[in-house]
Structure formats: C-alpha cells, structure tokens
Amino acid sequence: MSIFPQKVLAVGAASQNKISSIVRKTVLTGSLSLAYLSAIPFLTSTDSAFGNSPPAPASPETPTDSHPAINCEILSRGPEVQLLQQEARLHSFVNELLTVLRSDKYESLSNFFHPGTRVGSKVGTKIHTLLRNRYDQPWQFSVFRIWRLTSKEGTKGLVRTCPDNDGAIIITQYGHETQYALWLQIMGQNELGRLVLAVAPIQGKMQIVGFRIQQWTELGEDAESWTKRAQSWLQQNERIQAYFAFDVAQKLLAGEDFVIYPQQRALREARDELFTQAKIVKLINDQLKTQSIAYVGGLVAKDGTGILIREIVAPDESTHKLHDLCLKRGSSLKRAGWLREKQGLRCNFIVAGMDPTQDSPLGGFYLSPSDLKNPEK
Q1: Cα–Cα distance for residue pair 303/343, rounded to 1 Å
Q2: Distance between CA 284 and CA 296 in Å, rounded?
Q3: Banded model confidence at residue 66, pLDDT cuts 50, 70, 90
Q4: Is the Cβ–Cβ distance between 322 and 360 less than 8 Å?
Q5: How many Å is the maximal CA-CA distance in the chain?
Q6: Which letter does DSSP use for residue 21 in this model?
Q7: pLDDT of 287-302, one tens digit each?
Q8: What is the per-residue pLDDT across 108-140, written as a single tens digit (0 to 9) for each?
Q9: 49-60 CB burial, b ≥16 within 10 A, e <16
Q10: Phi-psi sector, 156: left (phi>0), alpha (psi -120 to 50), beta
Q11: Which of 1, 157, 187, 190 could serve as 67's disulfide partner, Cβ 3.0–4.6 Å?
Q12: Cβ neighbours of residue 167 under 8 Å, at least 6 residues apart?
C-alpha cells in the first residue's frame, strides 16, 4: 500500500466535485515558488530547505507543464542503496551520506554540498537541529526512492512520468544534463519524514545541489489521515477544527522547489472554502475582542498541532508584556474551543506596516500544550 494519499477524501458532495476538478487540473501557480533557492543567512525552527543550483546565466522559469525532453528512470526503491552495478559513484555517495547521518557526524555534511549552494560550513549543525526539533531519537535512515533524470539541455522542468512516484511531480534543477532525485526516509520515535535531495555529477564528483526536509506525518498521521480528520470535524459541524486539519494536511505535502503533490492545491482549496484568510482573521479578532491579529495559520510542532497568530504591537513593547499577551491569547482560545488537547499556540509579533504573512525580527513565543494547561499561572 502506498503511503502517498491517492485522492482527497470527500468533504460533502459539492466540495468533492470541486476538489476533484482541482486535482485534475493540477494547478501549479499560486504560492508555490519555482525559483532557485537562495542562500540562507540563518535558520528558524520552520526552515527546511537549503541550497540552490550552481549559478546559471539567465535561468529560465520553470515550465507549467511536463517537459517531454526529460527522461526519468527509477534506480532504487529502497530500503538499501543497491546501485553498485549501474551507478557506482552514486552508490558510494549515498552510502557515505547515510553513514554520516547514522553516525551523528553532521559537522561533515557541508562536504556533500556543491560550493555554489552557498550553504556554509554550519549547514550540518543546522540540519541536525531541525531534525532534533521534529523527530524523537533514535533515528533510522533508509532509501525511499532514487531516480535518474536526463536531458540534453540540462533543462529545469516538471516530470510527471517517473516510475513509482505515487502521483508526485518531480522538479529538475537547472543546468545539469544528468541529475538524481534522492529521497531518504527518516523514522523517528514519533514521526516519519523525508530528506529530499537533488544530486548532480559535477567535475567528476557527486554533489548536493538542493536539499529539503519534508515532514510526512504529524501526531503519527499522514496527509490522508488529516484529511479524514477534517471530514470528521465537518460532519460534527466543527468548521474551525476542520479548517486547521485541512491546513495540517496541506502542510505535510509541501514540496517547495523539488516536488509537487497535486493534492496539496486541492487541500488548500478545501480549507479556503471554509474560511478565507480574511474571514478567519476577522473571526479570531471578534472572538478575542481585538483588531490587532493580522494573520492566522495552522501550526505543526513536535508536540502537537495548534495555531499561529501574528499580532500587531507597539515597537517598544516589553518582552514581559508580550509573553503575558500570548498567555492571554492562549487562555481565551482554549476557552472558546479554538485550541483543543495536544494543541499549542505560537504568537509572532509584528509592527504596523510589516507583512503579516512573514515572521518578523521581533520574534515571539511558542506555548506548548502543557504550557496551556494552566495559561494564567
């Protein structure tokens, strides 16, 4: 049985028809960026993508349809590498990478990245921190899939024809006639995830030209299970809980510049059919009797799901007052039923004029489910 959700479950007859139509269209625009990843000067707990392809002159935009000139072959279905006979260099590269991951020698991971990615010497430490913040140890790493992608022009494009892709669309990186899509699986004691890598032979050496950590489960459940949760909440007329369940489901299918899951777009549409961003913001402001909440989103954290709010505050507000404000918000949202068991709250603070869809340098606070058991203490 595939662990990739093959369809979005029904959320009512009208919604099902609309969602099925969206899935068939496979919309590739919107918030999904198809540009190269830029160098990351620092990472927060939510950052998960590293590197970019080595600089290329005037790289073209990614086409919005499959590129027929890109050939895709399956090399491995895991869990072992098993490439010695057909791809000896790649076989050695993957084995060496797995050895580093399994032996906890993350400081040497920078040696696997192409210098053009500009990830810096500390990238291994950053990756280790992100994994530790998401997955309980000990970890188990294995191969999930490896594909070889070839094109005469080193084209950047979308490939729907990779065997055993479970419906995923692989995005090739620009500038490499031969490259490999390497998906490793990480199994923590609490969650399952994937390390999605773009690897290319450059100057006789296999090197990483793109890297992403993708969380595959939350509270031990994948996107299909979270879609079922959303359906269940809808049947109980719990529209707010359904909204956030759809949001968790679509977050688990975020592939950024490496892979597109058509179901993600459908899940976003199902979520927004319940509440647009403007409506959910108005609803929470009315609930909290304020007008300062500028953004509301779902939260995926190590110890559970929850809500993210971005709130406009005075630029000179003290840290103590901001912490108290976050506790107050958490208490109110729990009383109102917005926050349930195993759900936390992240408060991010912005000042007037800042983009409410982005985190700000002001930072904020995360209140775990245990913090919210007695939020006013």
Answers
A1: 8
A2: 8
A3: low
A4: no
A5: 66
A6: H
A7: 999 999 999 999 998 8
A8: 999 999 998 999 999 999 999 999 999 999 999
A9: bbbbbbebeebe
A10: beta
A11: 157
A12: 4, 6, 261, 262, 263
